[in-house]
Design a protein that fits this description.
By secondary structure, this protein is an alpha+beta fold. It is built from 21 helices and 17 strands. Strands 7, 8, 9, 10, 11, 12, 13, 14, 15, 16 and 17 form an eleven-stranded mixed beta sheet that branches. Helix 6 links the parallel strand 1 and strand 2. The protein is elongated, with a radius of gyration of 27 Å. The two termini are about 45 Å apart. The relative contact order is 0.11.
Amino acid sequence: MTPTERTIARLPAHLRRYVVSQDYDAYTPRDQAVWRHILGKLRSHLSDKAHSVYLEGLEATGIGLERIPSLDEMNEKLSRLGWAAVGVRGFIPPAVFTELQALGVLAIAADIRTHEHIEYTPAPDIVHESAGHAPIIANRRYAEYLKRCGLVGFKAIATVEDEAVFQAIRNLSVVKEDPTATQEEIEHAQARLEAANQSRRYVSESTRASRLYWWTAEYGMIGGVEQPRIYGAGLLSSIGEAKHCLTDAVKKVPLSVACADTEYDITRMQPQLFVARDFEHLFEVLNEFEATLAWKRGGDYGLNEAIQARTVNHLVLADGRELTARVVEALPGARPVAEGLNTALVRLEGPVMVSREGKNGGKPWPGLALVAFGEGELPDKGDFKLELASGLKLRGFAVGGGEVLNLRGELDGRPVELPNVAQLFLSTGLPSVAGGPADPGAWDRWFGELNAFAEGEGEAKAREKKTTALHPSLAALYREVRTMRESKSIHLARLEQISNAATDFRDDWLLKVEVEELKQSARA
């Protein structure tokens, strides 16, 4: 098995299905020229402006100047740092990206930007994901931060509107990288993203987590505010941003948890950036942010976040059981049940999956479920009556395995409307409410999409169109120039002919740059 195949084999099945082959032979000669041009510019500009680990980090993670890196070569190097990389197609769901990162796996978008977008592209590509994210991983403390940041993003609660925004961003990036896209298609994609953003009812935990990640791992600077250095992947992988960020046009402010409440726009260069004192500062801010999440707070706060989100999340009960479902209602009790918990009863919309320590224990319950809070015990079978500390009284018939029939209840003397058939759980507290399923793999097996590759269909078609859009004659010229460079057998007369032939392709400036570099090298 290759290093990349070994990495993929270790991944859970629900993550493996988002992995794609890098298909190295699909890169065109112009793709290779794009890589070389960007890396040459970036290394030259960033040698004294990026964090001190940057240059050695390129070498340590298998990223060279002359050609697009292969994932196998990267994995050989990354394994020594406790990391790995897999190929993906464009934007993948945030929960997949953050779970991979928490596991120490970089999701590398296998595509590469076009020469028209050489300075900056909003779409994930191999320049951003490898030359941007990988080098600073050579600093072990920063590598730990990336994993922790991935875990926090994974645990944060996302809303149904967050999903709509993600799909709109993904669609816009595909359209913008598609050489055959019409102006009408581009405008529609931009309007779709604007509409998705306007549909947000509130700023979710997931959105705040993504902002923190953006202002640190993507667009972070480090050191003094007066003379900061670059460590964020978005800055390290963009020629335009790498130059712009160090000018007076960009305001630099000390990093704080306020970054989680600061919006960003992926379609333009950033007017303000946050500067961390050092990598320890990142952990200080992350810890402060993490303490605000339902994952850490649980109780009524967590329930409210889950109800607002209208998405699948999971409750962690006092005895360690985890219930994955949509939380649809929380009934306040007459008296507090535990610290931070005044809720007497919670309604869950099925399917409801029960797990413990992230491992599913069996077939999900298809219908409604209830969680009643307080000290009490549900008999395995037969009639039961319960009086809980919240003031809630329940009676019904236990079928077995938590299923109850003919359920009746009252709270402080008032009747409570309850389903006649339900799954009933009892708990003395609610220490955590976290985003997504407790066991993503089991949930995916029961309810996941049958074919994740369909989600990358648009990106795959855009890549195919970019390849076919390169005229065969132009591709041959790029290939010839690259062969000269690699063989170090440079023929000035032939280069002059290639330069003349390139004038037939007015929109392609990169080949002329490649030719001029070789001419200068031959004359030196």
